[in-house]
Amino acid sequence: MKYPVLGALSLILTCYVMAPAQTVKPSGAATAKPAARKKTVAPAQAAPSSIPAQLPVPNWLPPTNPVQPAAAIVHDLLDTKLDVRFDWAKQWLLGTATLTVRPHFYPQSQLTLDAKGFDIKSVELVNGPSKKGKDLKFSYDKKRLNIALDRSYTRTELYQVRIQYIAKPNELPSTGGSEAITGDKGLYFINPLGTDKTKPRQVWTQGESEASSCWFPTIDKPNQRMTQEISITVESGLKTLSNGLLTSSQRNPDGTRTDVWKQILPAAPYLTMLAAGDFAVVADTWRNKTVNYYVDPSYQHTAKQIFGNTPAMMDFFSKKLGVDFPWEKYSQVAVHDFVSGAMENTSATTIQEQLVQFTNRELPDVTYETEAVIAHELFHQWFGDYVTSESWSNLPLNESFADYSELLWAEQKYGADAAGLVQQTKLRNYLQEAQTKREPLIRYRYANREDMFDRHSYDKGGRVLHMLRNQVGDEAFFAALNRYLTQNKFSASEIAKLRLAFEEVTGEDLMWFFDQWFMQRGHPELRVTHSYDNGQVALRVQQVQDTLFQPVFRLPVTVTTWANNQPTDHRIVVTKADQTFRLPAMQRPSLVKFDSDGILLAQIDEERTQEELVYQYYHARNYLQKYEAIDGLRSKTADLGVSALFRNALTDNFWAIRQAALEGLRRYKGSEGNAIRKEIQRVALNEKKGVVRATAIGTLASFPNEDFNEVYSAALRDSSYLVVGAAVDALAKAPTVATREYINALQDTKNAALLTALSNYYALNGTADQYQWFLNKSKDAPSEVLYTLLENFGTLMQRMPPIEREKGIQRLETLARTHPMYYVRLGAYKGLNELVGSMPVLKTTLQDIRAKEKDERLTSIYSLIQ
Asked: Which superkingdom is the protein from (predicted)?
C-alpha cells in the first residue's frame, strides 16, 4: 500500500505547518464522502514558494541514521496454518499456529519468531503424519518468541512447530503508525459488543508494515514468503474473508461456523488478512475467477457502480504487463474505522468504507479518487504482492508502481486530459512535502520504517516512473516491466533488479537515470528564459536548486516552438547548472514551451508574456498546457482578452478546465463584471458536473456585498450534496431568514460533505439551538468530518454562557485525549482552544493534553497553536 489514510488527510501536518495562520482542514473534508482520497482529483493547492521563517530547518541534509539493511534470512518460512476464533468481549484472538520452516543455509537449533503481546500457552514440535506434538522449551519477551529445537536442522530438512496463543492487540503499546497507516496493532475489533448503533460489529486485520505478528506468530519481514491456510470460527450470522479460496465452511454444534481459506501461492506475511462481519457479498467475475465486493448490506445495490470496473482493470493491467492477474481470486472488502486508506492483501484488498460506500444520491458526486484507490490496490497484486520489495528501504518498488497505475487507468478509461490531471495532482502533492523534506526514493538510512510511507514513495515515485516511460518509450517500458515481473515472481526484489530489467530490454546503460532519481534526493528547480535573434531561439535553462546535497540533473526534455500556428518539437538534454540551447526558427515564435508534454518532475519558473500565455491556452495540446495558461493569467482577468479566455474556458470539454476558470474568476473586478457574473450563475445552475456547479457557487460567494440568494436557494435543492454544501457555505457568510429553514431541515444528513458545511454554517450563525446538534454529531459523524466539526463546536460555544458549555467541553476533552484518529484529536484540541479566551482555566487542560500526547505529528502542531 497502503493507500494513505483518506489520502489527503495524511498531509494535515504538512499543511498546518506550511500555513500556521490558516484554518487548515483535511483536503477531503469538504467533499469527504464523495472524494475522500489517498489522493485528490481536483487540482491541488500549489506548494508554497517559500518556507515561513518560524518553521524548523527543512530536512534536506544527509541523514545520520544507521544503514537499514534487508533482514537476514536465517529460516525460510514456507507455510502457515492458523486456527483462530475471537473473544469479542475481551477483544482477544484465540489461536493455534502451525508453521513449516527450514534453515535457509546454515544449520539451526533455534527458531526466533516475531510475536507481539501474546499469551503463549504451548510450543510443540509436530512429529510426522500423526501430528503429535513434542513440547519445546522457549523464552518470550512479549516481542520475540525464541524456541529451542530438539536438535540442529540443516537446510534440506523441513520441520513444523505448533503454537497455542492468545493475541491481545488492545494491550499493545502503540507507536502511532505512519501518515499512511495510523495504527499498528494488527488486529482490530469494531463495535465488538454491538453497543454502537451507528456501525456494525466487525473484526479485521492490517499487517503492513510488521503488524501481522500482532495476531499470529511469524517471521514478520517482507523478504519472507509463505503459503497459508486460515480456519476462522465465527458466529453463524457473520461472513468471513481471507486470502486465497474458501475451501470449506462447516457449521459447529455450538452454533458457530468454521470457514477455511487456503492460498497455495506464496506471499509475504504482512499481506495475510482476515475480516469478519455482517457483509453483503456482491459477485462478479474475470476470466472465470471469482471477483467479489464485500460491503455493508445497505450499500449492496450501489456496489457494482463503485467496484464494477474491477474486471476491466484486471484485464487492462494483465494485457499491459503481459502477466495475467496471478492470484486465485480477487475480493475487496469495505470495513469501518480502517487505519489506512486501503491495503493490498493478496487476493483480498481491504478498503476504508467511506471511500467506496455511497448511496444512490451520492453516486453522481463520486470522483476518480475512488477508482484510483481501486486501481492502486489492484496493481499492487503484481507490484508488492507477486514481486515484493525485499526491505522497507525499497518500498517504492511497491508504492511507486501502484501510484502510477492511477494515471495508467485514467489514461485508458478517460483519456489524456484525465491522466494529465492525475500527473498534476501527484506532482503538487510531492512538491508540497518537499518544502520540508527531501529524501532519496530508495532510503537505506531511514529513522523508522514507517517514515517510508510518504509522498516520496508514492507521488514522487509515480512521477519518476512516468519520466522513465517517456525516456524509453511505451513498448520498451512495458516489456521491461514484464521482464521484471517474470524474472522475480514470488520473490523479494531490490532496485537494482528493476534497473537491470530495463537495461536488458533497451540495451542502454540507465544507471544515470536510476542514480539521480531513485538514489539521490530532491528535484530540479528550473528557471527558463528565451529570446529570439537572427533565426534562432536562445533558450536558457538554469538549475537553481541547492546542489550541495542535491545533484545537477540530467534532463532529457521536449521544447516546442510555435510559428504560423504550427508546432515544432525539439528534443534537448539539460546536463549543466546553467545551459543555453539554440533552436532554429525562421521567424519569432508565438510561443516557446519548455517541457511541453509535462513530463518532468520539477519546479519550473518559465518566463512567458501575457500574449504568450493567451496563445498557449488557445493552442494547447494537453490539459497541463491549458491549465498552466489559466493559472498564469489569474491576475490578469481584468484585461478584456484574458477575461474572454476565461469565459471560453467555462465551456471547455474537460471539467477540470471549467473548474480552473471558475477559480480564476473569484473576486473578478474587470469591466465585464455583469457578463462574467451571469456566466458563473449559468454554470452554477446548469453545469452537468456537480463539483463544477459547487465551484461556481463558491466563486459567486467571493463577490462581497452581492446578492445571489436566488442561486443559493436553488442550490439548496440540488441533487448533488456537493452543491448543497457549497450553497450552505456561501450562505454562512451572508445568511438570510428565507434560507435558514431550508438549512435546518438538512441537519439529519449523513453525508460527510454536507455535515462539514453545516458545521461551518453553525460556527458562524448558530445559536444555542444547535448545541445539541453538535453534541450528537460529535458521537456519530465520520472521522473525516470530526476534524472540522469539533473546532466549529468550540466556535459555537463561544457565544454561549460558560455555565451551559459543560457537556460540550467534556466531549471535546475526551476526544482530544482518546480518539484513535490523530486528526480528530487535533480538531477537538482546537475546539477547546477556541474557548480559552473566555475560559482561561482551559489552559491547564490543554497543557495536560499536550504533555500526554505521544504522537509526534500532534505535538509539533500543538507547539504552533498554544
From this structure: Bacteria
